[in-house]
Amino acid sequence: MRMYFYVILYSILAIASICEANMKLTLRLGGRKDPPGKLELKALASGRHTKRQMFYLPGDMTKVVKIKTCTIARDVIRDLCGMMGLTSELDCDEYGLYADLGKQSLPLPIQPNDYILDITTMLERQKLEYWLFFKKIVWFRPMRLENALFINLLYHQIRPDVMRAHLIVLDNSQLDPDVQLRVSLLASLQHRILGQDQPPTRAQVSKLLPPSLAHMSTPDQWVSEVAREWDEIASRILPMDAKAKYLSVAMTFPLYGSCFFPIKNASDSRVQGESIMAINKSGVHFLSYKTRETLVTYSFGEIVSTRKLRSNSGRQYLDLKCGNLMVVKVTRCETPYGREIGPLIALYSKMHLEEKRRGEDQQGIFRADAALAAGTY
Predict the structure, then answer these.
(1) Residue 238: which region, alpha, beta or left (left: phi > 0; alpha: psi -120 to 50)?
(2) Contacts for 353 with CB less than 8 Å, ≥ 6 apart
């Protein structure tokens, strides 16, 4: 009888602990925006408080995370970052979640304080097929290429930008010899990453190069340079080490660490026709669609706010309000990606302000220590 009493008491205490945690989170973030779905209620009624949710990472990798009724996106980001050896909150700030709704719709960004079950319940009620993805969204802090999952995630996220030649700036529509050597090295490393142990053939080399750059040198020259890099570097290392080396080479390009968005047109006269918006640690850049040369740059200190717009005809725009309290200029961009661009700019701006604040606090500590040492404090 006493054992039965302890079991009941333990169950009550466990339920009370869950209720207390949920109440604290509700007071801090607000309650769930959507009522629980049938499956969630059925699970709760049967005593199941967690759900195994699949999350997709770049490169078709998957990880399963246990979700509770009170789990927010921030909790999932911490768990997945922990698997990559990232434990600092500042590191976690650079990652995010989004819902992929298929080719017919743009990705749905998930905010850090969104309840995961709110998102899944909303999508299921609308009878939408979805996949929850995790990726790096901000490139702000220095990185160490040590954890295998971390290397894999970055490699699979960066490779599409390399193959689209987003990172490579052309000089007067020409490929600089040094850049060509680095492109050849990336191609040879990619060949090793694919598990090959023989030099790439001419046909293989053509598939390893960014399509928009292949015509900028003769096929024989490309094959010769890729083969040389293969013999000197790529053939001597393991596929996983080749991925780390691939990332190290990609980091040498000025546009590494950028998020790229196509822009149909912009109201700034310096941007003619289609362009590419690159957002990175140094600001918002409008790039030439053909050469990736920078046409216009706005620092985060210049950007006052952003606003999404939709015309009566359904065309989507993003307004960048730049300037100061005295003079403000609005640059209107036609793009369907305003839902992603606006929060990304806000996140970078926030990180710059926090970094500046930490620097000022550190300087204050140094000044106080110096004064104390001099006996004048």
Answers:
(1) beta
(2) none
Give rounded-to-5 percent helix, strand, coil for the chain: 45, 20, 35
| Helices 177-193/239-250 angle, 10° precision | 150
Q: How far apart are CA 7 and CA 20, in angstroms?
A: 20
List beta partners, residue 105: none
Distance CA 87, CA 90 (A): 9
Query: What number is the average pLDDT over the span 234-255?
Result: 96
**Which residues share a beta bridge with 329?**
322
- Contact by Cβ (8 Å): 179, 168: yes
Query: Residue 119's closest CA among 29, 57, 37, 22?
Result: 37
* CA 100 to each of CA 21, 93, 108, 133, 322: distance values in angstroms, whole numbers, following the listed order: 30, 21, 6, 7, 31
Q: Indicate the residue type of 35.
A: P
Q: Which amino acid is at 11?
A: S
Which residues pair with residue 309 across a beta bridge? 317
Q: Which two tokens stand for residue 46?
A: 């049967």
58 beta partners: none
In the predicted structure, residue 107 carries a pLDDT above the cut 90 = no
As given in the structure block, the two tokens for residue 60 are 């078709």
Is residue 97 within 8 A of residue 76, CB to CB? The reply is yes
Q: What pLDDT is stored for residue 18 in this prediction? A: 66
The single-letter DSSP state of residue 194 is T
Helices (H), 64-147: 73-83, 89-92, 116-125
Write out pLDDT tens, residues 195-214.
999 999 999 999 999 999 99
Which residue has 């957002």 as its token pair?
Answer: 279
Strand 303-310 and strand 61-68: pairing?
unpaired
Reading the block at residue 149, the tokens are: 């999952």
Q: Quick one: tokens of 144?
A: 């160490």
Query: What SS3 class is residue 44?
Result: helix
